[in-house]
Amino acid sequence: MAESTEQRKSRHLDVCLDEDVASRLPAGWDAVRLRHEALPEIALADVDVATTFLGFSLRAPLLISSMTGGTQRAAEINRRLACAAEAAGIAFALGSGRAMLENAALRSTFDVRPVAPNVVLFANLGAVQLNYGVRVEDARRLVDVLDANGLYLHLNPLQEAIQPGGDTNFRALEPKIAALCAALDVPVIAKSVGSGIAPSTALRLIGCGVAAIDVAGAGGTSWARVEGKRADDASRERIAEAFGDWGYATPRATAALRAALPRLPVVASGGIRDGVQVAKALAVGADLAGLALPFLRAADESDAAVAELITELVTALRIAVFATGSRTIADLRDALA
Ligand SMILES: Cc1cc2nc3c(=O)[nH]c(=O)nc-3n(C[C@H](O)[C@H](O)[C@H](O)COP(=O)(O)O)c2cc1C
Question: What are phi and psi of 327, to 5 degrees?
């Protein structure tokens, strides 16, 4: 019998938590060097990391990237992540809402508004689902029911191609994405899932009306490797492993997008693991930095672990801003060594 969306999502969590699913391509943060200012002429207390993204105010330029929903376990993870994001004033993205569209009873596993009334919240759908029965009205309903501030649309052709029985018809999606962007009252953000987005593709997506791009580049969680490990089929896993270093590394992909599209709202994610890498992501051109797997690990542990991770990221980011002699995250753009 075909695996249900619910079973698939639960297995994804286990594979990500228990197996080595790191991209075989190093993200390359070591090659990004920030200036060290020995005489900063400000106090650490003067550093201000607050920002706005797509018009939403955030106390730090951080996003908990799209991961989960659809199971009871996912409900608890989403609750933990949303509460911590709300308390810290950072943004939070839910995992793909397709399961909820298929089964309305799963709404409570995504619905974090009761515990996080003010968090900047993004719903999520796979763009390819627009070729598999998901209509613009469904996406609108997802956003409305969850009271989301925006919709993440993920682009995952490699993942679908490696996944047994994946949804691989990516034909003629551009007009459907354009119709979706036109119909929604909230911004649509296009993202990859760990392979990156080239500037030429970003331009096409902007032509469709997307408001921002999340590069979700290579160097962190590899969705080829996740799907290979999930397949329980040695041949399929070998095929998947051949794609273990596929895609554009996050820092380079972010810099390329920023160079090509100076005013585009950009999120960097994929392989960001500490606050200094957050600072580097901002320095090469991102407006926001997103992390997925580190937050899954923390949420799997406890509420306190999620809060502690956010504190560590923000503290290291603040110190990095200070040590470059910058006062705000906007100043970081001039802080490459
Ligand atoms: C357990 C898990 C589930 C994910 N589910 C989704 C999803 O439903 N939709 C999506 O757009 N991305 C999903 N992602 C991808 C992440 O949002 C992110 O793009 C990718 O993992 C790279 O970030 P990282 O290296 O910090 O993990 C998922 C990631 C993880 C770890």
Answer: -110, -35
